[in-house]
Amino acid sequence: METFIILLSLFALAVFLGVELITKVPPTLHTPLMSGSNAISGITIVGAILAAGSGSESGVLVQALGFIAIVFATINVVGGFMVTQRMLGMFKRRG
Amino acid sequence: MNAMVINLFYLLAALLFVLGIKGLTRPKTALRGNRLAALGMLVAIVVTLLDRQVIDYTLVAAGLALGALIGAVMARRVQMTAMPQMVAILNGLGGGASLGVAAASYFSVLAQGGDLSGPTLMLANGAAMLAVLIGTVTFSGSAVAFAKLQEILPGQPIGFSGMKFINLGLLLVALATAWMLVTGQAGAGGFAVLVGVALILGVTLVMPIGGADMPVVIALLNSYSGIAAAAAGFIMGNTVLIVSGALVGASGIILTQIMCVAMNRSLANVLFGKMAEADAN
């Protein structure tokens, strides 16, 4: 229970930080910011690795779900950062 | 590796994400911001691979390789004009991943035959159901957003004015099912119902919104996938998942608000899947 309160505090503080981080964003950066933070939400890959790597003891279903989650999250992460990089690279050439 | 060392590296990853998001809000620092965020992700992944909980590397390596290959090919091939669709797919996959993580944790508890009465276990299960609900809505909602932008589905709003009551009803059914799952009144069947209802809810939330408003919807769904990741973090008490998920969830909703203002739309209408007034008239 105590751990839960610590985690909840961490969550609440991170929410406030997230709100404060975004103030004025020029419209040209709306899509890159969305796609960059979308890549960050692929952090669920950490949970996927822990689930898929838990060994055969945890059962085939858990391993299969973990595997699917890893594939999805990795596409999210790799695709997300690469696409953001491409978008930002294009702005640079234009400017 | 020692749990304390792992958590310190998770902190480093979270700080890099903060700097990354901050950088992405300014044209001058945007490129560096993206690189910092990617570096943070690399740190988080490598440290997780060294975690003692990871026993079997075959599935992990195969999944990482397959995902990286698909992601890289997609990112290279996509047309610049198709970027919103691309982000929608990626976001949907992120939500799907959170669903997978939550489902894996639920079934692993179920397989161990653990009794669902301990308060810690109930909290973990509550977080799992939340991750399932939000992750699934993100998944199916993003699929509809993609289909609308790709013109597989008609771009104009589909639905009727009472749609929000249906959405509210679906949400209540989902929450009731989640509650029964947490208290142990429902089993694997209830879990399937929760996923099914959430899939439908994602579709009915996005269907009534017109193609022109899709970027706002995608920004909102992006925020949802962050919250789903944070919920997944609460299941296993993982700090980096909680912090990064909360960051993306909160900054995503602010970005959605900013985009709504820029496009002259109301955030409440997008949130509740209501048709844009201009389209209704």
From TrEMBL, chain A:
It catalyses: NAD(+) + NADPH + H(+)(in) = NADH + NADP(+) + H(+)(out). Keywords: Cell inner membrane, Cell membrane, Membrane, NAD, NADP, Translocase, Transmembrane, Transmembrane helix. GO terms for molecular function: NADP binding; proton-translocating NAD(P)+ transhydrogenase activity. One of its GO terms (biological process) is NADPH regeneration. Pfam families: PNTB_4TM. It is found in: Cell inner membrane. This is proton-translocating NAD(P)(+) transhydrogenase. Residues 8-93 form the NAD(P) transhydrogenase alpha subunit C-terminal domain. Its EC number is 7.1.1.1.
